[in-house]
Design brief:
By secondary structure, this protein is an alpha+beta fold. Helix content is 52%, strand content 15%. The protein has helices at residues 7-33, 35-69, 72-77, 83-91, 95-98, 111-121, 125-129, 134-139, 204-210, and strands spanning 104-109, 142-143, 168-171, 174-177, 180-189, 192-197. It has a six-stranded mixed beta sheet with strand order 2-1-6-5-4-3. A hairpin with a 2-residue loop joins β3 and β4.
Amino acid sequence: MNRTSTPSTSGARRTAVALLAVAATALVIAACGGSDDATTSAASVAAAPATTAVAEATTAAAETDTAATGTIVDVAAANPDFSILVAAVQKAGLAETLAGPGPFTVFAPTNDAFAAALTALGLTQEELLASPDLAGILTYHVLPAKVMAADVTSESTPATVQGETVDVKPVSGGVTVNDATVTTADVAASNGVIHVIDKVLLPPTVAAKLGAG
């Protein structure tokens, strides 16, 4: 009478065969090079695939995290508090740039920060978006490097993408940029980092043109 092997039985046979093969290999190595060498070689052979698998899994996880985070533009667009900033970036044609490889540091004003700036400047949102100075104002909020809050250990004046410098310094419990305060630091993005600020930064040349102090 013929017997049909079940999946579990077949799996057990394959495992037994594999164990016999490993045992046979160990015996051959022992015969050729001594028991100590055989133990080391067998351990190395067994460990290599596992090590490779762990490394591949770690790399895959890191890639997944990066993909899930999204670029600076993606992160800003997903936050309703940045709707004016995102509209301005799109209007100025900077979305593609800020979605590039970077890395960038963006000091991102919230909608409340933009509302306060518009009131102070006597402008409407539409007038700001139509301003020839818009791109310069926005790129004044961007550093061409990734700077985390912990990196700010002393006062510095880094050059922005716009070309003029900002005054970045550590203060008790945080960081300031010119006269703005970082309210939320180190918002991760795949091509840099965002620091949320409570004021819109104006380049000195633009501030002089607009009569802002």
